[in-house]
Design a protein that fits this description.
The protein is mainly β. It contains two helices and 15 strands. It has a seven-stranded antiparallel β-sheet. Strands 8-15-14-13 form a four-stranded antiparallel β-sheet. A two-stranded antiparallel sheet has the order 3-10. A hairpin with a 2-residue loop joins strand 4 and strand 5. The longest helix has 5 residues. The radius of gyration is 16 Å and the shape is globular. The protein starts with a strand and ends with a strand.
Length: 204
Amino acid sequence: MAIKLELKRTERILFCGSKWWGDPDMPENMQYPTMEVTEDGETYDYPLTFICQINCEDIAPFDKENRLPHEGMLYFFAAVDDYIGYDSPVHNPAGEWPKGRVMLKYAKTINFETFQTCMLVGDEDEQLTENELEIVFSECEDEAEGIKMLSNDLPGSYPDHTNLLKLVSDSVSGLDFGSGRLDFVIKNSDLGFGNWKKTKAVLG
């Protein structure tokens, strides 16, 4: 069985809760991830897009094989600007993305007093992120349509991996992969040791 993620627009405050888009709520010592970009002979750091944060307590009832932590916060970042209608300094190929274009982070505990919302703003302090969405979790079949976690629906050539998150085109989130998909996969051995930095993004 897999975990289905249904995205909903909401007026609720989602600080330190599971949410899609918006800005991540992170510990003070956690840095927002960036990727190195070279344009016109100049190299600079460009922020990865924050996709979602998962309060692991929310998925614990559905993760019956205990594949993920059941406390703390799991964060997904990736270079997905192209797929939500924004210009991007990089264009990702089909198949496995180059290193540095996806990043997972994990905080073992959640502290409402010390966590801070890391906001990306423009030169005039305008918001640069999409409005945050609430995530509703439920159990589903591996073959079910939609955005899912922990499905056995893996992209080809990735045996002995876990599909942490499968993204598909979605009208609520605004993601558009055409008829394709984006999978965040990690070797089972790396997952067991919490080596989140070993996560790969595969576009198919």
